[in-house]
User: What shape does this take?
Amino acid sequence: MANVNKTPGKTRRAEVAGGGFAGLTAAIALKQNGWEVRLHEKSSELRAFGAGIYLWHNGLRVLEGLGALDDVLLGSHTPPTYETWMHNKSISRETFNGLPWRIMTRSHLHNALVSRARALGVDIRVDSEAVAADPEGRLTLQTGEVLEADLIVGADGVGSKVRDSIGFKQDRWTSKDGIIRLIVPRKKKELGHGEWDNTIDMWNFWPRVQRILYSPCNENELYLGLMAPAADPRGSKVPLDLEVWVEMFPFLEPCLVEAAKLETARYDTYQTNKLDSWTRGKVALVGDAAHAMCPALAQGAGCAMVNAFSLSQDLE
Assistant: This one.
């Protein structure tokens, strides 16, 4: 746990590096607990990177604690069933015994968190990049400005400069697999007969390894996660190699045609970090800065938000 002293009558100050899900959650939760909070985002605007996202029971409970759940529920989707297919045949159907879960676009979740942070009065600074920190409670910005705080939260992602400037012992490795993540139109009518409101996790191992995570986010938007080994030049190609994906998943052709049009598509390999500690003095790491996860777990953002919320609660 970060070493934070509480002086009676003194308002504690937190500097948060990173405007993603972890950083926004930390900023909101600390502000709700009476802290003065300043959040630093290196980009020129606050925006979500990526396509779609799953939130399970843990992430939804955090949103409830942040006062952002109602906004997120509007415009997101809970499928009737989570199906798993093997070679285009359904092999399992899960309802998780009624536990709540939700699919949404990443921008929908991010916008709800930004709105909540602003409503609470979090000081949000864009074009403000944290480049170093020290355990005594000083945060250095790209401009050379040094800020002092009772708590520094390193929520600046897998390539965290806050983490690396302090020298946390870490292991890092990259998987042989990767993913193309896209938001496309639902095309529900064009798909024809089928249970297209479900999540469908489609696995194929022959004649090549390809997987599609079919995830409806709302009535109009569909999140597609297309997974293939990095060593497969056609499966990992972006923009999408339409022929190779339609050959394996012909029933999704209307959606895949839309996916192939996206010139901004990226193929990202999975990366994992493992640290010996997530705190040093007045510095605490949360989210991917502390433990980047394989996206196939669908727990990266949810766990990051739990980290950040738990940090704020434990400090009380």
User: Anything to note?
Assistant: The CA atoms of residues 164 and 309 lie 23 Å apart. The first helix runs from residue 21 to 32. The chain has two domains: 13-71+103-172+273-315, 173-269.
